[in-house]
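Q: Start with the shorter request: fold the first protein.
A: Done. Sequence, then structure:
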Amino acid sequence: MKSLTIAIACALLFAYQVFADERSVLACVTVYWHGEGSGGHACWNGARLREGDCGVDPKKIPYGSKVVFPDATCVAVDSGPGVVNRKSARSCGRTAAERNAIVIDRFFDTKQKAIAWAKAHPRFMTLRILAPGTEKATDLVDAKNQGPPSALK
């Protein structure tokens, strides 16, 4: 009986690791840029923000995770009160699932780029989240950018 319990615990531990590396979530995507009151630095560590960064709730998506959008892969490096309290999802969501969605705030270098991206994409979308250190993130970017993963080139 003891060995069965240990075997099940080990299996669950390994299964958790497989599913923890990658998951899909419904997200309300907002945009921000330099000079929008947020400045150009991440709030949690003061690092300079650049295009390809995004703000997340660190309790739900750890910093350093990859957030895979339809057109790019961003890195979770920032946070903010609007992201954590999910204000945008709660106010704009039409269904219960949308009102309960997480909020991801995508950073752009300019206001024009941010607004153009927001107009061209839906506010709610299903995004893939890749845990920090997940090798699949580089494979995915390579696959979108012309072919096989870099390990196969």
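Q: Next, the second protein, separately.
A: Sequence, then structure:
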Amino acid sequence: MNLSRKIAAALDENTKVHAPPCAVTVEEGPHRLTLHLTALDTVGVAFTALEFTTASRADWTSESLQGWGERLAGRVTYLMEPLKVLEIDAAGGEVHIRSQSPTTRAEQRGYYEVRLFKQGTLRMERLAFDDTTRQRRPIPCQLTREVLERLADDLAASVG
């Protein structure tokens, strides 16, 4: 069974049993995916954060993290905004990926932010930047179940 099937089964179970907010975690081989759910129904999910961990290597160099980030941005082309590797922190062992073109609604710009860490972890969130206050804040990331399942498999495949 792959990550997409496991997350689908876990969400089906949680739709019947649990009420958000809650965390749902699935594992497949060296990969673990955790969703911090705020809403869940038969069509889609909303979450504050998606965390992905791979144990396929012990430690990631800045070059291997950059490669992972570029593979991820190249594969995940179906979200509201395309992703782009924004910054590589070689000293800190981190790669920062963001939406290439944020979505503007009213006075706010919404965008995805993905951070890859040298321990083989990834954290994905959706943020809004308020042009009036010049502040950014987390907002729920909303995906259909089909997009989430595809994303789970693409995260695992992008590890390389």
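Q: Describe the second briefly.
A: The first strand starts at residue 22 and ends at 28. The mean pLDDT is 93.
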